[in-house]
Design brief:
The chain is an alpha/beta fold. The chain folds into two domains: 10-124 and 249-318, D-Maltodextrin-Binding Protein, domain 2, CATH 3.40.190.150; 126-223, D-Maltodextrin-Binding Protein, domain 2. Helices cover 41% and strands 19% of the residues. The chain is built from twelve helices and ten strands. Strand 5, helix 7 (163-175) and strand 6 (180-183) form a beta-alpha-beta unit. Helix 4 (94-103) crosses helix 12 (297-318). The longest helix has 22 residues, at 297-318.
């Protein structure tokens, strides 16, 4: 349901964007890339790695700005209302572009209308984790513990309707357990409380999870992808752990204000596609557990439309609401 994979260079193979030399001279001044969540999460990690490569390749400043709040809506709205000259872009997880219009009762923008989709940048599997003090050592043990203590275990997320919230709701439903959702203003503060024992479990994206898992501050019980993650080869998939059919991946996409001219959107997409082909960036992303790849232009727009339809069904089934 949440499983999506980017296809690096798909648009180049189809001839939908030209070479960098054929595009307008841009950027000729700093580019602000808004991340609508706090620093330290996987969205922030991917944005900073991409912008580092873009700075090196263009010789211009690509500045990551974190503007969190309202499930990502605050930062997203700032881009939706920005001057469409390519100097204000949004690099976001699914929420602001595909989830929030179905989740919130009142929205400052309409995602399908107010953004110019540019590129799908990366996909990452989620990981089911517990705090170090929780006695469960595997998924079966966690389910047994939750069934023995209905309504006692809490799972954290980066906010109502976030992908890790909906992954938790899917886990609750498929496992037949009663666990309590605790929303945070971003994944990083939720992780802090998981490490500190204030919550018992959490799904989060692999790039943000790896340092805590490797340091032993949290315990990874399962990877919620179709296959095991190369970065965590000893951790089973959710299917291997006893929940066949459970898959939950997140993605990160780049968009600008809807008024961006097509040649400018094409130019940005070309720069991103070429950056993601850079072996150094690919290695850095892979090292964090992210899979580099991109869909651009109309292909990315169609992807977003499918995602909106999927998330609307998930939200309706879960009863999740915000705002």
């Amino acid at each position: 349901m949440m499983h999506r994979r980017g296809l690096l260079g798909a648009a180049l193979a189809c001839g939908t964007i030209g070479s960098a030399s054929a595009q307008p001279a841009w950027p000729d001044r700093p580019v602000r890339v808004l991340v609508p969540y706090p620093p330290g999460g996987s969205n922030d990690i991917v944005a900073r790695l991409l912008c580092e490569t873009l700075r090196e390749r263009t010789g211009q400043a690509w500045i990551v700005e974190n503007r969190s709040g309202a499930g990502g809506n605050i930062g997203a709205d700032a881009v939706a209302k920005a001057v469409p000259d390519g100097t204000s872009l949004l690099l976001t997880a699914p929420g602001p572009l595909t989830i929030n219009n179905a989740l919130f009762g009142s929205m400052p923008y309409v995602a399908a209308r107010d953004f110019a989709p540019i590129a799908l940048v990366a996909t990452v599997p989620m990981v089911l984790m517990t705090g170090p003090e929780l006695p469960a050592r595997d998924v079966k043990g966690l389910i047994d513990l939750a069934r023995a203590q209905p309504g006692k275990l809490a799972f954290g997320s980066s906010g109502n309707g976030s992908t890790n919230h909906l992954a938790g709701e899917l886990f609750r439903s498929m496992a037949g357990i009663d666990i309590v959702h605790v929303p945070y203003r971003g994944a990083a503060p939720a992780m802090t409380d998981l490490v500190g024992g204030q919550i018992g479990l959490m799904f989060d994206n692999l790039p943000a999870v790896l340092p805590q898992v490797r340091d032993g501050r949290v315990r990874a019980l399962a990877v919620a992808g179709a296959t095991r993650a190369a970065a965590l080869p000893d951790v089973p998939t959710m299917a291997e752990a006893g929940l066949p059919g459970f898959e939950a991946e997140a993605w990160f996409g780049l968009a600008g204000p809807s008024g961006m001219a097509p040649p400018l959107r094409s130019r940005v997409a070309t720069l991103v596609t070429e950056a993601l082909a850079d072996p150094a960036l690919r290695a850095k992303l892979a090292g964090t557990g992210a899979e580099p790849g991109t869909l651009v232009g109309d292909a990315f727009m169609a992807f977003l439309a499918r995602e909106r339809a999927t998330w609307s069904r998930v939200i309706e089934a879960s009863g999740a609401r915000a705002g």
